């Protein structure tokens, strides 16, 4: 989510860098390149080449191994079976070490919950016939995953700078190779693999079950509504972004899963600040993910307002109305009188503090859309003319960023300029999902959608030790200065929003011969064995991991079920 999520690297505790650019991560705004604004005569079909081939599965297809690598490993090393009892946990699998070299390698086990714990008493057998067995003399307890490493016998797994030999623990390091949180750098290993221990999954819907499984997180106690849990944003990390908590609550509510929606909201009630807002990011235990930086970002807070509205509507319940009202009143206070293109507006500022220089003077399109939906929904449920007035102002502010052929991504009150150099995919899709196909003055917002094909790629690829998926079609995130990406990838969250916008406003539109239905069918191939949607296909962008994600999984649910989270009530 550009502006409420992409404003920082979504990995662990990463702090904001100072040089983000004026509107980077604000919902962006597109370049005025002619290719990006073309509207084709005779309809919405964008002429292009042959349809992309459907994904091809190959290689070992183990049920527990899903850590992505930049390239296929030189040595196959994967878990074929995982069995567990009260007294032991057994991993069995295969390897492709040369039979004469087996004695030169060892297998080690790390269990993870808050940090990685080295299991010194693991009993390991590496057989020359290409099989291995690792036995722990206990159940894994509260672990959310195990990482098995295959390493040279001369290597000490606790020797790295991120490890403490005295306590036999290693903090997770996010490597550029994997973009996952791992106890050891893959560069020093022969191979590695992971086993996952998801929370109980009860839903018959694959996406809802996948979200349930990502709640193998610490219990957060002491909240006003009882105990709760945050949902981890990525399967392999301990981040819990506010936006992802909102997406999960909306999905659970739409699916009628009140118990899991309650868990997330209960945890968030404990964390709600005195102002009524939440910070941008937490760790799964509720700790501020950017401690010391006052990051109350408007868009992600508005999304949680949408989540509380979705819960209230789905379950006809005012259980959390007090916290919802407190949040919406906070958002009311963040509306500021500004002038855009010579016209007075009331807009939602990016944040109340300049945690990055000038940030409080930014007005991102996406944040206006998010808050518009949240205010509109809240008013429909609860009344209050101040919320209706705010919704009207936010729609007006959003429409002021329409340049006649597309939406710009934001306004910088620090310099009194509109950003025209960055063009984000979500500006096209979310504007239509939130505002509708046409504007209050009959502006044809849906006519901008064919320009999303500028972000389209047919070369999405997932590369895992256990499987390879190629031929994924979809969209990447942003075009800077009118120059398409030289290394495009498929971004699941954004692509699924684009699919929904195409269905709503451009039913005949295709990109490279692919309809919205074709793209959605292709993307369903990305889902991993734990029923999670990877955040992106293989890429070199540190912000876009291929780990299973809440954002991808929730948006896949919305797209598969044709449920628009921005919908009016």
**Helix percentage:** 25-40%
Beta-strand percent range: 15-25%
Compute the number of strand runs.
Answer: 26
The number of distinct helices, counting runs of at least 4 residues, comes to: 11
The CATH architecture of the largest domain is Alpha/alpha barrel
- Rg value: 24 Å
Query: Biggest sheet, in brief?
Result: 6 strands, antiparallel
In total, how many domains does the architecture comprise?
2
What does this structure look like?
The chain is of the alpha+beta class and 569 residues long. The chain has 2 domains: 77-196, Immunoglobulin-like, CATH 2.60.40; 206-561, Glycosyltransferase, CATH 1.50.10.20. The chain is 25% helix and 20% strand. It is built from 11 helices and 26 strands. The chain has helices at 206-213, 242-254, 258-271, 298-315, 321-333, 365-382, 385-399, 425-435, 492-505, 516-524, 550-561, and strands at 56-58, 77-84, 89-95, 105-112, 116-118, 123-126, 131-136, 145-152, 163-164, 169-170, 173-174, 181-182, 191-196, 239-241, 281-283, 335-340, 343-348, 362-364, 410-412, 417-418, 422-424, 456-463, 468-475, 478-480, 533-534, 548-549. The chain has a 6-stranded antiparallel beta sheet with strand order 9-10-5-4-8-13, with no helix packed on it. A 4-stranded antiparallel beta sheet has the order 2-3-7-6, with no helix packed on it. A hairpin with a 4-residue loop joins β19 (410-412) and β20 (417-418). The chain starts with 55 loop residues before the first strand and ends in an 8-residue tail after the last helix. 54% of the residues are buried. The model is unreliable at 1-49 and 59-66 (pLDDT under 50). One of its GO terms (biological process) is carbohydrate metabolic process.
């Amino acid at each position: 989510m550009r502006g409420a999520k992409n404003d920082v690297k979504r990995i662990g505790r990463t702090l904001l860098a100072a040089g983000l650019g004026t509107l980077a991560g604000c919902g962006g705004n597109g370049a005025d390149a002619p290719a990006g604004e073309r509207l084709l005569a005779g309809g919405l079909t964008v002429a292009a080449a042959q349809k992309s081939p459907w994904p091809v599965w190959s290689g070992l297809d183990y049920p527990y191994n899903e850590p992505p690598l930049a390239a296929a490993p030189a040595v196959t090393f994967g878990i074929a079976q995982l069995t567990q009892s009260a007294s032991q946990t057994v991993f069995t699998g295969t390897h492709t070490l040369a039979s004469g070299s087996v004695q030169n390698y060892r297998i080690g086990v790390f269990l993870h919950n808050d940090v990685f714990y080295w299991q010194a008493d693991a009993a390991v057998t590496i057989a020359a016939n290409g099989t291995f067995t690792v036995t722990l003399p206990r159940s894994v307890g509260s672990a959310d995953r195990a990482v098995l490493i295959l390493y040279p016998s001369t290597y000490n797994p606790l020797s790295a700078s991120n490890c403490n030999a005295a306590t036999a623990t290693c903090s997770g390091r996010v490597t550029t190779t994997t973009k996952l949180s791992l106890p050891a750098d893959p560069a020093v290993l022969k191979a590695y693999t992971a086993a996952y221990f998801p929370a109980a999954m009860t839903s018959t819907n694959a996406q809802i079950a996948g979200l349930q499984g990502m709640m193998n997180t610490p219990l957060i106690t002491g909240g006003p509504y009882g105990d709760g849990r945050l949902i981890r944003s990525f399967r392999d990390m301990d981040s819990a972004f506010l936006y992802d908590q909102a997406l999960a609550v909306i999905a659970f509510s739409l699916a009628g899963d009140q118990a899991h929606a309650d868990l997330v909201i209960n945890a968030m009630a404990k964390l709600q600040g005195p102002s009524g807002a939440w910070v941008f990011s937490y760790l799964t235990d509720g700790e501020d993910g950017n401690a010391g930086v006052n990051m109350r970002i408007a868009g992600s807070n508005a999304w949680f307002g949408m989540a509380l509205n979705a819960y209230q509507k789905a379950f006809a319940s005012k259980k959390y109305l007090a916290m919802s009202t407190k949040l919406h009143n906070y958002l009311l206070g963040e509306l500021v009188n500004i002038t855009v293109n010579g016209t007075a507006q009331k807009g939602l500022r990016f944040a109340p503090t300049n945690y990055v220089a000038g940030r409080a003077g930014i007005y991102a399109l996406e944040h206006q859309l998010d808050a518009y939906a949240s205010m509109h929904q809240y008013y429909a449920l609860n009344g209050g003319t101040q919320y209706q007035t705010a919704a009207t102002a936010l729609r007006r502010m959003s429409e002021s960023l329409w340049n006649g052929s597309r939406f710009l991504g934001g306004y910088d009150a620090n310099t009194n300029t509109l950003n025209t150099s960055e063009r984000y995919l979500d500006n096209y899709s979310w504007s239509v999902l939130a505002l509708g196909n046409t504007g209050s003055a009959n502006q044809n917002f849906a006519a901008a959608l064919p320009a999303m094909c500028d972000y389209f790629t047919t070369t999405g690829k997932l590369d895992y030790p256990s499987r390879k998926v190629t031929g994924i079609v979809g969209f990447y995130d942003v075009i800077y200065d009118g120059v398409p990406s030289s290394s495009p990838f498929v971004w699941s969250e954004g692509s699924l929003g684009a699919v929904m916008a195409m269905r709503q406003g451009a039913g005949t539109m295709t990109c490279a011969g692919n309809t919205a239905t074709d793209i959605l069918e292709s993307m369903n191939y990305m889902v991993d064995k734990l029923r999670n949607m990877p955040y992106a296909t293989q890429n070199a962008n540190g912000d876009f991991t291929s780990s299973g994600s809440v954002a991808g999984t929730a948006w896949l649910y919305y797209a598969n079920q044709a449920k628009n989270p921005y919908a009016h009530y």
